[in-house]
Amino acid sequence: MGFEYSEMKAMRKQIAELRRNSYEIHMKVAKRIAQLAIRKVKKMTPVDTGDLRNNWKFTVTKKGDSFYVTVYNKLEYASFVENGHRIVVAGQTVGWVEGKFMLKLTMDEMERIAPNMWKQEVEKEMRRIFGQ
Fold first, then answer.
1. Which domain holds residue 108?
2. Looking at the 3D structure of the chain, how many domains does it have?
3. Which helix (H) or strand (E) holds 80?
4. Cα angle vertex 83, ends 78, 89, to 5°?
């Protein structure tokens, strides 16, 4: 059993290409996860005027070797719909409105499915580069 030096040179080039494409691969998957999260959180958001549903946004940032997806809504009352709030009449608390937890439930689901999405995309890129 042996190997050709030219095979090692080819493999080195393939690994270098994978390393160069790494950032784009991970950013593409992170954005795909963020877009999926936005779709899911919008479906779960209750609608009165549609403002809350239409104000969901996301950012993807890279810190060190990690990519962070942030899903947010800048409307003042978004946290009250998410977490619940008191009902106050004439200065007295008369009840409680349960939260919808649309963002929490969406993020729980994304944390569950994200590793598999990453794995599939990296494997696809490796098959493309290494030709298998």
1. 5-130
2. 1
3. helix 78-83
4. 85
Alpha-carbon distance values, 51 to 41, 47, 76, 101 (Å): 14, 8, 11, 17
β-partners of residue 71 are 58
Q: What percent of the chain has pLDDT over 90?
A: 70
Which two three-digit tokens encode residue 92?
């007295």
Q: What confidence tens digit (pLDDT) does each residue in 65-95 have?
A: 899 999 999 999 999 999 999 999 999 999 9
Distance CA 111, CA 108 (A): 5
**68, 61 Cβ separation under 8 angstroms:** yes
Sign of the alpha-carbon torsion through 73, 76, 82, 83: positive
3-state secondary structure of 32: helix
DSSP state of 94: E
SS3 73: strand
Name the β-bridge partners of 88: 93
